[in-house]
Amino acid sequence: MPPSPVRVTEAREHNVRRTLTLPGSVEALNTSTIASTVDGLVVEFAAREGLRVKAGDKLAQIRSTTLELRLEALRASHKEARARLKLAESNLARAKELFDAQVVSRQQYDDAQSEFTAWQGRVESLQADIARFEDELDRCLIRAPFDGVVVRERTEVGQWLAVGAPVAEVQSLHMVEIRVDVPERYFPDLRLGATVNVSFESLPGFRAQGRLIAIVPRADPQARTFPIKVRVSNESGRIGVGMLAQVAFPAGETYRATVVPKDAVVRRGPRDIVFRLNGDNTVEEVAVETGTGVGVWVEVRGGVRPGDKVVTRGNERLQPGQSVVPSPIQYERPS
Question: Is residue 237 helix, strand or coil?
Fold first, then answer.
């Protein structure tokens, strides 16, 4: 067999920290059942299941014709009342001048003052009524309270809604939380704010980083596990609520270990192996046991030592003792 071209990288010694991998379940950051705050008939319904919405987007429209007519009448009355108030103000000013000149009686001046005060109160009352009806009219348009996805429809066009009746359920999914139950023996190793690595059974090859945001110091009395929450960005929308996740936490003290690029590890049946380059440009197969990942590197335990050159490209079809043409390839240093 002619020599095969391969890429090689030196194994390194590096400080690593053991990781603990536990299953968890994905939960929505926010879940809200949007309700109607007015009585009325649904004349438009846009909140279909699966619809992605932004804060303020229309979910449903309640019939508002009656409110609009009432509001129009109130505005007309308010316009008339302001005109009456302006006239009463002029009459009061004139009555004050005549009263000071002792041309009109005190009773006539008090009547002008009372007329002005009455119309002033009427204008203020109508302004309050207009503001109330404007608010009610605005609430006939039911909006999304935050960015998210409609996960359940709770009404339909033609349905009468009472105050508090549900319209739709919306979940915020730009960020998700993963609930993990941690066994009691690992509880002392948890650190709030720690960075964790997350994978998902239903998303092969997809990896995400999260942050430990909550540690509940109260164990389940039966399982003796402590609930914690990890927050993960979900801008791509690939992570769904209810998915099963695998969460890897740093646990224990750091220690020195041999690490190689993850590309160097080849799965052969039930074993993980690494092809090590010999001085005569042949390769030998070395069985290893993988441990903690460090970026694009991974801890290996077995016959590989720091400084050994291992094959990281072209190793899928190599056989023990095969001649190769090696060339170096650099990987980002483990951190």
Answer: coil
Number of structural domains (the chain) is 4
- The least confident of 26-30, 160-164, 247-251 is 247-251
Domain identity same for 224 and 241: yes
- Alpha-carbon distance of 25 to 236, in angstroms, equals 18
Q: How far is CA 143 from CA 35, 130, 166, 187, in A?
A: 10, 22, 13, 42
What average pLDDT does the structure give for the chain? 92
Same domain, 56 and 145: yes
Domain identity same for 164 and 193: no
Nearest to 60 by CA among 121, 2, 139, 116: 139
> In the structure encoding, which two tokens stand for residue 153, read together?
């429809």
- Do 176 and 194 touch, CB atoms closer than 8 A? no
User: Is 302 a domain residue?
Assistant: yes
The residue with tokens 């000071």 is 100
CATH of the domain at 291: 2.40.420.20
CB-CB contact of 234 with 193 (8 Å):
no
Domain that holds residue 103: 65-139
Indicate whether 159 and 211 sit together in one domain. no
Please report the DSSP string for 153-171 in residue order: E---TT-EE-TT-EEEEEE
Between these two residues, 295 and 257, which has the higher pLDDT value?
Answer: 257
Helix, strand, or coil (residue 30): strand
